[in-house]
Amino acid sequence: ASTLVVAEQIDGGKLAPVTLNALTAASQLKQDIDCVIFGADKTAETTTQLQKFNNSNIKKIFVAENVAFKGLLSEAVTPVLLDLQKKNNYTHILGGSSTFTKSILPRLAALLDVQPISDITKVVDKDQFIRFVYAGNAVLKLKSNDTVKIITVRGTAFEATKEGGGSGQANVEKLDSSVKNDLSEFVERQIQQSERPELPSARIIFSGGRALKSKENFKLLYDLADLFPGQATVGASRAAVDAGYCTNDLQIGQTGKIVAPDLYVAIGISGAIQHIAGMKDSKVIVAINKDGDAPIFAIADYGLVGDLFKVIPELNEKLKKK
Amino acid sequence: MAIRILVGVKRAIDYAVKVQVKTDKTGVVTEGVKHSMNPFDEIAVEEAIRLKEKKVAQEIIAVSCGPTQCQETLRTALALGADRAIHVEINGKDYETLQPLAISKLIAAVAKKESVDLVLLGKQAIDDDCNQTGQMVAGLLSWPQALFASKVDIKDKKAEVMREIDGGSETIRVKLPAVITTDLRLNQPRFANLPSIQKAKKKPMAKMSPSDLGVDIKPHQEYLSYEEPPKRQGGGRVSSVDELISKLKEKGLV
């Protein structure tokens, strides 16, 4: 019995951080791990980064490089994964939850007649897993009877695997990745360039809601984040995104990103169930809101009732002096 | 060469309801609880209607899998602008254990039977939060998939779709027939008005069973228990920015 982890390449050949959370979940299954990496180029760099984690039972890294993998289109990637599964009969196939794995793993599962398991937060044993349903209002324990379990792993629920002191030499094998895909084509990608960390890996998140009132006012949050270079970033509630105050990739909640930073500062966010689903596992939650009855206060460690347009500038000044 | 669209609508507990876990842990309380069309499916219906208004689509078929009450959800889709509906009836124990793989097989079978060019679905349902069905329908049909769409443009038997991804968005082009799943910002769904609700009562609704479609819906997973999530200890207050900063300093956070 062995496990396949679908490692994810992101911009510039980097290994996606969420792959390391998936490796932790995979190592809890206590069996050998193979990994597979897809990319249009720079897969050697991604492989080198992955090899640093060979302490987590990684036996082999399969690498599939082909221009057809540009944009990691599901129609190109899935057939290669299907072949790999048919050859090696893994009992578990895992990926860290991301738009990439959410796209390919259910598609792969359908081809194998498997009911996939989305966004697990706990591995109970080889067949049983825990995941949240109803926006985190219920915790479901399920048992899969499929011969291969196909799983996405919620990154915030598993620590990232740490670099090991091993030799860093898991076997690398190039896959025959001749791909024929005339179903779909990649056109372009618009990635928000930012010096700030990605939401799921930020230590501190300053998150804004509708009460910020405008796109310009969101700058108040960026100013706060910039007091913690490389550690802090900005998030938003769905209401703020819908109002056009910020781009949609900042949305935190049931249908946006799930985060669990050390410090989450909810500013002008009332605390709809759907938002709380995306941030309630943060280690410390601060709520700043004019309305002292806002539901966000019920889950906040430190609630401060006040006008954010007074509180935020004061907070900024005083944090700067510190 | 206008296209035919199959749009999936799921009946789910209304998004505004505070969901309660049953005391015997076998599920969540659904009796006497308001149900509505899954919000992402409303967006799918809206997009289908807009494609018809633009004369890109000629016919919209709505499909829902589940008990009799699903017909209400289908009537809503008809009132909004779908032309006809298909109710795949599944009741009792079969419905309780109905899983996305089985639903995907049913939708794929209907798509084939009706020879549609496009299946439009919500990206996820707000009850099981699985985010799987569109991908699986596409896989089963060997069709391309354009997921998490925030913009759809169809011409020359191709769909150009802007999709929301981690860190931004991207544009892909897929050949029809295809599956598209909707994200929140694709459109703003309309409400049905009274005359169209009346008119919807006369629109055709076909009923069929999984066996009519040749689909085996047996579950692949057992749901062992539902628990309340751990309660977060909150409610702490500070009275000033200074107090907040000193608390955060104590914890080594700032």
TrEMBL record, chain B:
Q: What are its GO biological-process terms?
A: amino acid catabolic process; fatty acid beta-oxidation using acyl-CoA dehydrogenase
Tell me if Transport is a UniProt keyword of this record: yes
Which ranges carry the Electron transfer flavoprotein alpha/beta-subunit N-terminal domain?
A: 25-217
Task: Identify the stretch(es) annotated as Disordered.
Answer: 220-240
Checking CDD domains in the record gives: ETF_beta (cd01714)
Q: Which UniProt keywords apply?
A: Electron transport, Mitochondrion, Transport
Q: Does the keyword Electron transport apply?
A: yes
Cellular compartments annotated: Mitochondrion matrix
Q: What InterPro entries does the entry give?
A: ET-Flavoprotein_bsu_CS (IPR000049), ETF_a/b_N (IPR014730), ETF_b (IPR012255), ETF_beta_N (IPR033948), Rossmann-like_a/b/a_fold (IPR014729)
**Any Gene Ontology CC annotation:** mitochondrial matrix
Query: Which family does the record assign?
Result: Belongs to the ETF beta-subunit/FixA family.
- Whom does it interact with, and what assembly results? Heterodimer composed of ETFA and ETFB. Identified in a complex that contains ETFA, ETFB and ETFRF1. Interacts with ACADM.
| Name of the protein this chain belongs to | Electron transfer flavoprotein subunit beta
Name the source organism: Rotaria magnacalcarata
